Amino acid sequence: MGANLALNLADSGNRVTVYNRTTSVTDALMVGEGVGKDMVAVATLEEMVSTLKTPRIVLLMVKAGPPVDYVIEDLAPLLEPGDIVIDGGNSLFTETERRYRALAEQGIRFIGAGVSGGEEGARHGPSIMPGGDPDAWPVVEPILKGIAATAPDGAPCCEWIGEGGAGHFVKMVHNGIEYGDMQVIAEAYDLMRRGLSMAPAEIGEVFARWNEGRLKSYLIEITSEILSAVEDGEPLIDRILDAAGQKGTGKWTVVASMETAEPTTLVAEAVYARIVSSDPDRRQRAATIYDEPVGSLELTVDDIESALYASKIISYAQGFRLMQTASDESSWNLDIGTIASIWRAGCIIRADFLDDITASYRADANLPDLTEAGFFIEALGQAIPAWRKVVSAAISAGIPAPAYSSALAYFDGMRSRRLPASLIQAQRDYFGAHTFERTDHPRGEFFHHDWIDGQ
After folding, report:
1. Which of 171, 251, 312, 389 does the annotation list as catalytic?
2. How, if at all, do strands 234-235 and 230-231 pair?
3. Which helix (H) or strand (E) covers residue 254, if one does?
4. Could you give the CA distance from residue 422 to residue 140 in angstroms, rounded to a whole number?
5. Looking at the whole model, is its pTM more than 0.70?
6. pLDDT tens for residues 77-97?
């Protein structure tokens, strides 16, 4: 992604200096795609800094975690107050907050910019989520917007997110939602493959049709292409080990949701589904012990499409609530509608669906929950019967559909006027005197009952 961003920057009218600790990497770039572009390769950080005009702007594209600190440790002494460092990797937002404060003490302006779109997006236009030092934004704004993707309405998919770690927090949630999107698509594939006995190419044709409707998106599009791929006359998908990897951003999203008390249940199930998949030997033993059940589902592909769509709505609603609550707690002043708008192109989760979300927030900037927007109220209402049918059928057949199930459970919980949590509070008070609130008293008043003596 670093090389492709450098090429993108050069194509957008910027003079670019490229550096990699392995010089053969930059050498290959300069005799390859870099030929004829306004780019120069250097062998040391000192040489790189010497080629830049002040205020210097340095974009880091290195692996998240300690490597970012190592590079900053070597780079910072070479910079001057007013210079700008941009971390374009997938750094944890709390680490970005730390780096932002530390560099500010040296007068160096730091930006943590989430960049989504993979290698293709980096080359031709990603979605960019910059946050950090607000004084640096006017300097880098024309540069970052110049390389960003363009939404259908012509707007660049890049806007200032907020101070400190706001940009990387939003990118983290974006990636969490991406986990969810991939899981709901995978569950649709599994239900059609095992439950409806459809071949991969046939399922690929279904995804291609879905990509012409309300589910039109990058991930639906590539799923269609993946399921159509053949190797030696056999579906390539059947030769790919069913053990999914992950780099941590989904887990970070779930941890952040717990810390802010805003459930992201679908993302959590997507993370756990990858963990379950990662031990195929254990699954093979269990399948032998318990006889893997496979039942024929009395479903249509339209039923599955509705369940996928409804679950997707819930996942995004949870993600946007998480961002809003984190914004309130950290005083980031996130513009939720703007965030939705910059995800409409360039990024991995780009989809027509985000046009509907953007429109909902533009109609009501203070929308408390996506599921309370008129468009999505109607959409969920229409999807509920098929959604329940799919979840029930999957459970009966023994085909796991954790994302659909958890999304439906969350939806049912959030619209229940009364939940059994009253019993949980009574239990907590019984064994630990943790107290409880009463329905016949104002919120915030707590009581204890003497359960043993009945007083």
Report:
1. 171
2. antiparallel
3. helix 249-259
4. 52
5. yes
6. 999 999 999 999 999 999 999
